[in-house]
Specification:
Helix content: 25-40%
Order of helices and strands: EHEEEHEHHEEEHHEHEHHEEEHEH
Number of domains: 1
Structural class: alpha/beta
Largest sheet: 8 strands, parallel, barrel
Strand content: 15-25%
CATH superfamily: Divalent-metal-dependent TIM barrel enzymes
Number of helices: 11
Amino acid sequence: MRIGLVLPGLTETNLKLARQIGASDIVSGVPHEALQDGVYQFQPIVIHKKLIEDAGLTWSVIESMPISDRVKLGLEGRDEEIEQWMQSLRNVGAAGVPIICYNWMAAFGWLRTSMTTRVRGDALATSYEHAVMQQGPLTEYGEVAESQLWDALDYFLQAVVPVAEEAGVNLAMHPDDPPLSPIRGMGRIMTSPENFQRMIDLVPSPVNGITFCQGCFSEMGIDVPHWIRHFGAQNKLFFVHFRNLRGTAEHFTEMFHDDGDTDMWAAMNAYYDVGFPGPMRPDHVPTLEGEENRSGYSLMGRLFAVGYMKGLIDAVEKTRA
């Protein structure tokens, strides 16, 4: 298991800090300037990768390379955009970045109703209340059935997975956040472990797998360690978001890693049991006193999380030795 980080800017200071706390991997989007005529170009991807490597780290995950609503909803014009995405995928593979984390959330991505919920010590955390969100209007697409998203996902994977195989890039689907459907009329389909298994089975391939976001899977009300083992036994865990929260999908608050509902020790043992080899990053963290509130992506909370994760990993490894 390797510790990855999303950094608030790939500055020399932040990259050094990542190494100093024991991270080995960087999770980053593709630089916007790499996008030309709908395609992320090879050379800017390589330059971004070398920026990270020259600092002694590895760019192991692209999170994310956006997929348009036109593709996710199967609308007119999607074929051209899928072709562009596949060319970007080829360029990612040629540059040697092994994982793309993507999602199938249309109209809006991850949703919260508060970015300033107080948790331990009055740290600021994100939270979600479904009853509040549902008071909002329908999206521009109106009522959208889950079947439309499934059909579009099948179409996309049939086209893209063979290209990912050739490029040597793993496609790691992230859950809907929160895993509820519909939200303001928009269907969502990555909402249960059974639906993830269905997604994997649509186009069976070694490169078609999962970003196991513990927070989202916890919101589903499931046995998290059980499903880590379920998907790990199939070699479908490509990337992990290690986070903790309190509550359910309908009403939850994101917590410090040592202060939520999920048994993080049991989860880390499950990753060990399946021999998870990939990068694992702390996801949304509370904002600590004295730093800018970045809505779950502040730096100091991330440092606390990495220390906690490394302690768990060390403990698991030593108790199994």
